[in-house]
């Protein structure tokens, strides 16, 4: 196996050079030949909200399709993903050299309260049991739909009674797992905080007080900037529900202001794309470009997509002996975030993949 010396600008560590030996990171210079890699080096990008295992018609994906998605992610510099809801665990189709996957089981929602085919649908009395089932299929996290359009009300509304949600979170915690929850609307957030969830996806309805409380509790927020930029599109699709339309357009008008509130709160933040079959055309670089355009400082965005985000999900960065998962750029993405579109090299398990 080829050994490497990493030098240049190593982000997320104070070391000026590190080595990859037998696929693992080390501070110890090896004997024998090494290949020099010089550039802007980051622990591999983490897409904390993507769906490599989801199929929109409800059937399990062909193994080749799962691998196509994971291969495409790697090409964008992504070396780890949290599969934030899908019918199958992509780890069953992963092999060495493809991104690591933290599978969250399948989405859980109530009947007709999520996109058709994507969620396991249960009533509140069945939420605890289904949460445990999804945890047992997962890699430690599960995903619950916290709010969605209620057609009778004509607007986004919380999906669950607070007591059912709290019982499900408690049950998963007792199993040793964690719970993240999809939420767009403000009315859901108090219930999520009271239930003790571990993560909130999108979080567009969170007030400054909600964000401060989430920061205090260490709740991980994934803003999915590219996805929330689509709120006008969602409003157009729901045009027969005028209250819903105004909610979505109102959140879009305040998008940049709200993202600034997230940053100011100090809440731990992950970067995620909310992609699935479209990952060949849209991935983490596009999320980072949109986030910077909407006010995130480039160093903040890159840290949350790399070493900071990885640490929050328990993934290694520069630790001695850790698997060597890195992305290298020829030019500094913290000067020009579009450089993330062009990784020079990607390493997974010390295996080098060149652009």
TrEMBL record:
Protein name: Imidazolonepropionase
Signal peptide (residue range): none
Occurrences of domain Amidohydrolase-related (ranges): 40-350
SUPFAM superfamilies: Metallo-dependent hydrolases
Molecular-function GO terms, alphabetical: hydrolase activity, acting on carbon-nitrogen (but not peptide) bonds
Superkingdom to which the source organism belongs: Bacteria
């Amino acid at each position: 196996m080829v050994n490497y010396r990493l030098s240049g600008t190593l982000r997320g560590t104070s070391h000026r050079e590190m080595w990859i030996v037998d696929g693992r990171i080390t501070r110890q210079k090896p004997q024998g030949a090494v290949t020099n890699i010089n550039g802007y080096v980051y622990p591999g990008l983490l897409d904390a909200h993507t769906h490599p295992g989801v199929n929109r018609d409800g059937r399990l994906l062909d193994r080749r399709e799962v691998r196509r998605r994971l291969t495409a992610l790697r090409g964008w510099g992504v070396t780890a993903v949290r599969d934030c809801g899908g019918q199958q665990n992509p780890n069953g189709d992963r092999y060495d050299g493809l991104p690591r996957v933290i599978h969250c089981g399948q989405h859980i929602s109530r009947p007709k309260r999520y996109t058709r085919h994507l969620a396991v649908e249960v009533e509140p009395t069945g939420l605890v049991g289904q949460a445990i089932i999804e945890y047992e299929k997962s890699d430690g996290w599960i995903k619950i739909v916290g709010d969605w359009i209620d057609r009778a009300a004509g607007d986004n509304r919380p999906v669950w009674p607070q007591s059912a949600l709290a019982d499900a979170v408690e049950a998963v915690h007792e199993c040793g797992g964690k719970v993240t929850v999809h939420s767009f609307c403000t009315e859901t957030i108090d219930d999520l905080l009271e239930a003790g969830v571990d993560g909130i996806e999108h979080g567009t309805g969170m007030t400054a007080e909600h964000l401060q409380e989430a920061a205090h509790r260490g709740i991980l927020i994934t803003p999915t900037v590219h996805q929330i930029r689509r709120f006008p599109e969602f409003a157009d699709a729901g045009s027969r529900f005028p209250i819903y339309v105004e909610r979505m357009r109102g959140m879009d008008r305040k998008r940049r202001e709200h993202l600034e509130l997230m940053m100011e709160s100090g809440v731990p933040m992950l970067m995620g794309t909310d992609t699935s079959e479209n990952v060949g055309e849209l991935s983490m670089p596009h999320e980072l470009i949109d986030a910077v355009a909407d006010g995130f400082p480039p160093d903040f965005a890159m840290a949350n997509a790399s070493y900071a985000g990885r640490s929050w999900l328990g993934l290694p960065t520069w630790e001695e002996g850790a698997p060597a998962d890195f992305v290298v750029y020829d030019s500094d993405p913290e000067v020009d975030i579009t450089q993330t579109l062009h990784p020079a090299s990607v390493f997974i398990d010390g295996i080098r993949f060149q652009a």
